[in-house]
Amino acid sequence: MSEGDPPALHPTTWAVLRALRAGRPVSRNRHYDLYRRPEVRRARDLHRFLASVAADVQAHPEQVEVTPAALDEAGASGRYALRIDFPRLNGRRTAYLTAFELELLAEQAPEVAELLAARVAARSA
Questions:
Q1: pTM for the full predicted model
Q2: Which of 13, 75, 81, 120 has a Cα at 20 to 30 A from 68?
């Protein structure tokens, strides 16, 4: 990923997301006004979402299926549906990730990225 701000995120969102991913504590009490901003809430939500997806994939690697999401009019997707089955609970989680979110997930959890890449390659073969 480039050092500049990604086009999909507000610069404040990207800065807060980088801080959260680096493990720097961002105290909610000390930064109360900052946390009220929607850009910061977006960063916090994205960070939690990606951590949750990574944890579920790591907990159930054999139950993961990756497929391209619905195609647009140009025939390209840009989004992926990540389906994780939970057989003991008789449940399923479907998370829709953009290519950028997959890139962030790959940086955060390389072993998850390898598993997802293998599933995509197996599906297209």
A1: 0.77
A2: 13
Cα–Cα dist 108/105, whole Å: 5
- CA 26 → CA 37, 50, 92, distances in Å? 14, 18, 33
Q: Each residue of 9-46: pLDDT tens digit?
A: 888 888 888 888 888 877 777 777 777 888 888 988 99
Sort 54 into a burial class: Cβ within 10 Å, 0-12 / 13-18 / 19+. Answer: middle
Number of helical (H) and strand (E) elements in the chain, helices listed first: 5, 3
The strand order across the sheet containing 79-86 reads 64-68, 79-86, 91-98
d(CA 16, CA 90): 36
Other C-beta atoms lying within 10 Å of the C-beta of residue 102: 21
